[in-house]
From TrEMBL:
It comes from the Bacteria. Pfam families: Amidase. InterPro entries: Amidase (IPR000120), Amidase_dom (IPR023631), AS_sf (IPR036928). This is Amidase. SUPFAM superfamilies: Amidase signature (AS) enzymes. It comes from Ideonella oryzae. Gene3D superfamilies: Amidase signature (AS) domain. Transmembrane segments: none annotated. Residues 13-361 form the Amidase domain.
Length: 382
């Protein structure tokens, strides 16, 4: 089991239970939470499991380890110069995506059917799309963040990355106390195709796939989409500066993350206030679109993942989250399904539903994955 993927091997729970791993920002009792950072080398062992970990273990799941990540969960590429960078199984010359890279690669490598990540600005959906697997950002507040780093966030969600929709749904049913039986998806849906800035092949992949279904497709414009992306950056910058800036003092933070965090410290109160105004307006805009459509659809990635050699500048690579980050700001549930462009490179099919309608989103995603024969790109266990 590669240490680039699994930073702490474990075996907790019944040997015959469904296997899972968790990103090393989730507490596991008796183990330190280091978040892929040398600054937390001396972190004390956690006193208790994160609530979602405890729920899965109580339901008979088997925890197999803690997974690697982009340092301090503050990056989009998954490149980590201290713990190592997990290798993207199907596209080894491309980044695995961040920040939940280890969880996505563990699933794509076939180590476990489910691994938990966290998604503050696309950090479940981006690596899931980069590695060709399934990944869900639940509605904000739907899944407990107790025992998750950072302690406070208005954006972050714990979500499953999985090899298939049935495994993802099984995990959500345990992680979420009030996760109900999935509704029946009717033969014809009204799907809103969101007009976003992306490359032609990403747009063609999504439109072409959905055109093969029997569903009604309708163009949707979200005028505040790019404003919401920038607002999401302002909010995460302020919240991460508050949570992580004390770790700068010992000088052990990776230079890419340290530089980004120092820039985040320059975020002004006025920028945060403006971002919160955009949050309210954009949430209403998405709600209005979803009052006319059953789900929204768009690519997960605006273009294929960058090559490793081109992704050294973390700040420049933040644009990888251009199509996912707005839904962290709005709080709506969003899921990515594996979808390649015409060149065989991953772009992902992203679906978005009404706030709180996570069961509906999962039902639609499962239905579409069957209709379109969308499968995870699984490698062999390392």
């Amino acid at each position: 089991m590669s240490t680039d993927i699994v930073v702490l091997p474990l075996q907790i729970g019944p040997a015959d239970g469904p296997r899972f791993m968790v990103k090393d920002t989730l507490d596991v009792a008796g183990s330190p939470t280091r978040a892929g950072s040398r600054t937390l080398t001396d972190a004390a062992p956690a006193a208790a499991h994160a609530e979602v970990v405890a729920r899965l273990l109580a339901a008979g799941w088997q925890l197999m380890g803690k997974t690697n990540l982009h340092e301090l969960a503050y990056g989009t590429t998954g490149i980590n110069h201290w713990t190592g960078t997990p290798r993207n199984p199907r596209w080894p010359d491309r980044v695995p995506g961040g920040s939940s890279c280890g969880s996505a690669v563990a699933v794509a490598q076939g180590l476990v059917p489910v691994a938990l990540g966290t998604d503050t600005g696309g950090s479940v959906r981006t690596p899931a799309a980069c590695c060709g697997v399934f990944g869900l950002k639940p509605s904000f507040g739907r899944v407990s963040r107790r025992g998750v780093m950072p302690e406070r966030s208005s954006l972050d969600c714990v979500g499953p990355i999985a090899r298939d929709m049935d495994s993802l749904i099984a995990a959500m049913a345990v992680m979420t106390p009030n996760f109900h039986t999935l509704p029946v998806v009717p033969p014809s849906l009204h799907i809103g195709l969101v007009d976003v800035a992306c490359d032609t092949q990403a747009r063609d992949a999504v439109h072409g796939a959905l055109a093969r279904t029997r569903h009604r497709l309708h163009p949707v414009t979200l005028p505040l989409f790019e404003d919401a992306y920038r607002a999401g950056l302002a909010v995460i910058n302020r919240e991460n500066w508050t949570a992580l800036s004390p770790l700068l003092a010992d000088g052990r933070m990776g230079p890419d993350v340290a530089t980004r965090l120092q820039r985040a410290g320059q975020t002004t109160d006025a920028q945060v206030a403006e971002a919160e105004a955009v949050r309210r307006a954009f949430r209403a805009e998405v709600d209005a679109a979803l009052s006319q459509c059953d789900v929204l659809a768009l690519p997960t990635l605006a273009s294929p993942p960058p090559r490793l050699e081109d992704a050294a500048d973390t700040s420049a690579a933040v644009s990888m989250t251009a199509l996912v980050r707005p839904f962290n700001l709005s709080g709506h549930p969003a899921i990515t399904l594996p979808l390649d462009n015409a060149d065989g490179l991953p772009v992902g099919l992203q679906l978005v539903a009404r706030h709180g309608a996570d069961e509906w989103l999962c039902a639609v995603a499962r239905s579409l994955s069957h209709q379109l024969d969308l499968h995870a790109s699984l490698g062999e266990p390392a």
